[in-house]
C-alpha cells in the first residue's frame, strides 16, 4: 500500500510540471485511476503492471506538453524498485 501512495504522489508531482490550465484535469484523472485500481482483481492484473502503466502514461503526458522525460526519473525509481 505504501508503494501505491508513493506512485500516486509521484504522479501528482509530475502534474505540477504541466501547464496551469491542464493541471486540474490530470490531477482528477490520476485520482480517479488510482481509486479504480483499488477495485482491480490482483489475480488477473499484477501491481507491477499497474505501476508500469502509471509510469508509461505519465511519460506520454510529459511528452505531449514537451516536458523533459528526466522529470519522471524519481517516479521510475519508485515504480521499478
UniProtKB/TrEMBL annotation:
InterPro entries documented for this protein: Complex1_LYR_LYRM9
> Which family would the database say this protein is a member of?
Belongs to the complex I LYR family. LYRM9 subfamily.
For this entry, the protein name equals LYR motif-containing protein
Q: Which organism is it from?
A: Thlaspi arvense (Field penny-cress)
Amino acid at each position: 500500500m505504501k508503494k501505491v501512495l508513493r506512485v500516486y504522489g509521484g504522479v501528482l508531482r509530475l502534474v505540477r510540471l504541466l501547464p496551469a490550465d491542464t493541471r486540474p484535469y490530470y490531477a482528477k484523472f490520476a485520482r480517479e485511476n488510482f481509486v479504480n485500481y483499488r477495485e482491480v482483481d490482483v489475480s488477473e492484473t499484477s501491481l507491477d503492471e499497474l505501476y508500469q502503466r502509471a509510469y508509461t502514461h505519465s511519460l506520454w503526458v510529459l511528452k505531449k506538453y514537451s516536458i523533459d522525460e528526466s522529470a519522471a526519473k524519481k517516479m521510475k525509481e519508485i515504480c521499478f524498485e
